[in-house]
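Data card: per-record layout.
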Amino acid sequence: MEVRLTTLSENTANFGFLAEWGLSILVETDNLKILVDTGLSISAVHNAQVLGIDLSTIDKIVLSHGHIDHTGGLREVLKRTGKVEVIAHPDIWAAKYARLKEQEFYVGIPFQREELESLGASFNLTREPVSLGDGIMTTGEIPMTTSYEEIDPDIYLRQEGILYPDPLADDLSLVIDTEPGLIVILGCAHRGIINTLLHAQKLTGKKLIHAVIGGVHLFRASENQVEQTVTALKEMGIKKLGVSHCTGFYASAHLARQFGDSFFLNNAGTCLTLP
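The structure for this 275-residue chain is written out next.
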């Protein structure tokens, strides 16, 4: 089975495309079209138009988590898709905040659920993995199993006016089972890229991981975490590694050195057919 991946929104862009902090990746097989995340605002829709992609043909939308840079484009996308199933964790609707230099910012979904439903969103909110067909599934909640991966300490939930550390239980990824190995599409991997890949292996019973594409939340990670992540990725024998969004310059450069031709920057406008 061929899997076609088109990155519609990302921090950086190929020539002729719009760049915007966030992520949106269209996943296509011969029978299914799944949009993973919707970017920050208008970039996913704009870049789809540039590529001649008809968003009304999308079968399902998967939200990797509830942050604005992955959900902010949902209204514009829904205006073009009409009625569509939106698969996510229940905590996408939590009051999410970030702290930067002692300033607090709301970073959750910027819309009311009722408005999105009026535009055609049919929310399937679950903590469990969801099978989408064609060997494609969501991870559901991802266990924290490694000793070196941790949640960003500057991300919070607001409850009754008080900020609490956000465990990002809503962080999930998409897993595609192909003959050469698993293809894993990440949003931000807030709960750790290695935790995510280990969970994907456990869910599918498959050890071989062919490709990992998307955000790898290492832009604030320690040097030790980056090094241990590289070691674990190498042990998994990954053949294609395309990083985006929240990976960070240092981690991206280090991964590029370590993985050579297997590595690429997954920018907006990148089109890839796997395996």
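Known properties of this structure: Residues 223-236 form the longest helix (14 residues). The chain has one domain: 3-274.

See the next section for split statistics.
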